[in-house]
């Protein structure tokens, strides 16, 4: 959204309280959704649960096309549609719900820096593994991404998405990396997160923030998704405080979910 | 042992101007880190050579190995025991990674846009500078190539499908960049460096990103004006220039 549109949305958002009918849209859970989208969606769900805002999760095959920015997930609240975690955080802030108000400037800077670390490393690694690794792309990503469509549309859409992601990887300099290097980057990212978390329950001690939601979304999804190899999940499992962090958030905020 | 290897290290990078040892962000990061870590490298600017087109800059040559791009070069120097970060705690090392990611995601797109995509800056400053430092006929090829790479990088990472137009993302990338500069300013506070009294790799990265924006003679840049208002960040750059890159020995 352009800045003017964002400001307008914020003003409109501030006017109304959070309705009961808020919905979150994502691709089909069983057949279609991919690792990176599932992680982003879970991060937003965790954030909304942490804020105590009710939201219904609705699965649609064309969720990606419905989204205003083309990215998953997006929420439909009242008569506004907002996609991606950062704009959703701003949107809820305009409605008066925020998790990071208690932080001072330096802590907020740290929180934003760590969120960019997760986006820069974990999300990019997920995209790389899904679409640039030939084995995973052929066995998992392309079939799943195109499952709601019939041939030849399924082929066209799957290859188009793969081409798009590979272009993006080249642009950010990940095109030349090998799978081992990507796993190594994930490991370093997890090490940084683990060291920052230490023995605290959440990243900023007692209260969860959007950073906790984002990290939970990505780590939990990686741990519970079946890929062609378990190496990615193994990298995370070697950090016990990250595992107990995920378990803690799952138990605190998702205990009534029947499936994760 | 390592001293022999150290003497043989050569760094290829873009040359300097505007009071900086190099105008190119990645080259500047590596130059600053070599100073902070006390590594002796011979600097060979690629200006006026065909390497402006053929080489990936910056490039560190040491014996048989050639390493490119700032993060691998910094890691390589660390393995050679030129480590500016050895006094950092594990948590500070993690913070370093996070802040570097912040710079890459929030500041880099706006810097690329300011120097390579904004028509006035590109025509009046960037293209003439790079064209004048490239031999004929590369002066016609090198600047447009960098400009295309910059534009496609911005659109691919920040552009929202299906309308890949630069005007739509401009507002967002500049507001992200201003926020990033503010966050750096909060984090730096009144210290000389980001972690205590001696500079580390994070200081090198921040210096590399911020110094060109601070010092370049850009005809139109609201981002530069915003940066100049952040006194502690500009003082940070001036301090590094004075201590490590004084005019007596610009390259060491």
Could you walk me through the main structural features you see in this protein, from its secondary elements to its overall organization?
- The complex is a heterodimer of chains A (260) and B (252).
- Helices cover 60% and strands 6% of the residues of chain A.
- With 260 residues, chain A is an alpha+beta fold.
- Chain A has 2 domains: 3-95, Glutaredoxin, CATH 3.40.30; 105-254, Glutathione S-transferase Yfyf (Class Pi), Chain A, domain 2, CATH 1.20.1050.
- In chain A, helix 2 (35-51) packs across helix 9 (210-224) and helix 9 (210-224) packs across helix 10.
- The longest helix of chain A is centred in the middle third of the chain and has 27 residues, at 105-131.
- Chain B is an alpha+beta fold.
- Chain B has helices at residues 2-7, 25-37, 51-54, 70-79, 90-117, 119-132, 142-158, 166-188, 201-215, 222-229, 231-244; strands spanning 9-13, 42-45, 59-62, 65-68.
- In chain B, helix 2 (25-37) runs parallel beside helix 4 (70-79).
- Chains A and B meet through helix 5, helix 7 and helix 8 of A and helix 5, helix 7 and helix 8 of B.
Topology:
The complex is a heterodimer of chains A (260) and B (252).
Chain A: H1 3-15, E1 23-26, H2 35-51, E2 56-59, H3 63-66, E3 74-77, E4 80-83, H4 85-94, H5 105-131, H6 134-145, H7 153-171, H8 179-197, H9 210-224, H10 231-237, H11 240-253
Parallel strand pairs in A: 1-2
Antiparallel strand pairs in A: 1-3, 3-4
Helix pairs in contact in A: 1-4, 2-9, 5-7, 5-8, 5-9, 6-7, 8-10, 9-10
Chain B: H1 2-7, E1 9-13, H2 25-37, E2 42-45, H3 51-54, E3 59-62, E4 65-68, H4 70-79, H5 90-117, H6 119-132, H7 142-158, H8 166-188, H9 201-215, H10 222-229, H11 231-244
Parallel strand pairs in B: 1-2
Antiparallel strand pairs in B: 1-3, 3-4
Helix pairs in contact in B: 2-4, 2-9, 5-6, 5-7, 5-8, 5-9, 9-11
Organism (chain A): Larimichthys crocea (Large yellow croaker)
Domain Metaxin glutathione S-transferase (chain A): 187-249
Keywords (chain A): Acetylation, Membrane, Mitochondrion, Mitochondrion outer membrane, Protein transport, Transport
């Amino acid at each position: 959204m352009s800045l003017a549109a964002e400001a307008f949305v914020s003003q409109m958002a501030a006017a109304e309280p959070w309705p009961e009918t808020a919905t979150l849209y994502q691709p089909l859970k069983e057949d279609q959704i991919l690792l990176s989208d599932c992680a982003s969606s879970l991060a937003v769900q965790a954030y909304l649960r942490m804020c105590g805002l009710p939201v219904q999760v609705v699965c649609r095959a064309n969720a990606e096309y419905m989204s205003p920015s083309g990215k998953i997930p997006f929420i439909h609240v009242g008569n506004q549609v907002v996609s991606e975690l950062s704009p959703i955080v701003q949107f809820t802030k305009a409605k008066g719900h925020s998790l990071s108000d208690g932080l001072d400037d330096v802590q907020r800077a740290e929180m934003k820096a760590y969120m960019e670390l997760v986006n820069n490393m974990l999300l990019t690694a997920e995209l790389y593994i899904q679409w640039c690794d030939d084995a995973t792309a052929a066995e998992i990503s392309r079939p799943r991404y195109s499952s709601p469509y019939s041939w030849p549309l399924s082929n066209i859409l799957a290859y188009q998405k793969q081409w798009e992601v590979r272009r993006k990887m080249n642009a950010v300099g990940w095109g030349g990396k090998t799978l081992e290097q990507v796993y190594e980057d994930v490991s370093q990212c997890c090490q940084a997160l683990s060291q920052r978390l230490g023995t605290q329950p959440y990243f900023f001690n007692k209260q969860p923030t959007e950073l906790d939601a984002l990290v939970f979304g990505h780590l939990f999804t990686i741990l519970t998704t079946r890929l062609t190899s378990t190496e990615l999940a193994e990298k995370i499992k070697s950090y016990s405080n990250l595992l107990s962090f995920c378990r803690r958030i799952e138990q605190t905020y998702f205990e009534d979910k029947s499936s994760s | 042992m390592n001293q022999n290897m150290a003497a043989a290290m050569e760094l290829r990078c873009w040359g300097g101007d505007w009071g900086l040892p190099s105008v190119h962000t990645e080259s500047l990061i590596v130059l600053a880190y070599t100073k902070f870590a006390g590594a002796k490298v011979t600097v060979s600017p690629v200006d006026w050579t065909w390497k402006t087109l053929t080489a990936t800059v910056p490039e560190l040559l040491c014996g048989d190995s050639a390493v490119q791009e700032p993060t691998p070069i910094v890691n390589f120097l660390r393995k050679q025991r030129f480590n500016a970060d050895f006094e950092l705690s594990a948590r500070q090392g993690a913070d370093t990674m996070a802040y570097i990611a912040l710079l890459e995601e929030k500041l880099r797109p706006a810097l690329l846009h300011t120097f390579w995509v904004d028509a006035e800056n590109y025509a009046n400053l960037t293209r003439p500078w790079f064209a004048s430092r490239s031999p004929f006929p590369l002066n016609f090829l090198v600047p447009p190539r960098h400009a295309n790479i910059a534009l496609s990088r911005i659109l691919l990472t920040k552009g929202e499908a299906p309308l890949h137009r630069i005007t739509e993302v401009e507002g967002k990338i500049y507001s992200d960049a201003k926020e990033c500069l503010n966050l750096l300013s909060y984090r730096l506070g009144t210290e000389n460096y980001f972690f205590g009294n001696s500079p580390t790799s994070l200081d090198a990265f921040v210096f590399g990103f911020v110094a060109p924006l601070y010092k370049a003679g850009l005809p139109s840049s609201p981002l530069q004006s915003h940066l100049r208002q952040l006194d502690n960040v500009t003082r940070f750059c001036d301090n590094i220039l004075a201590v490590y890159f004084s005019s007596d020995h610009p390259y060491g």
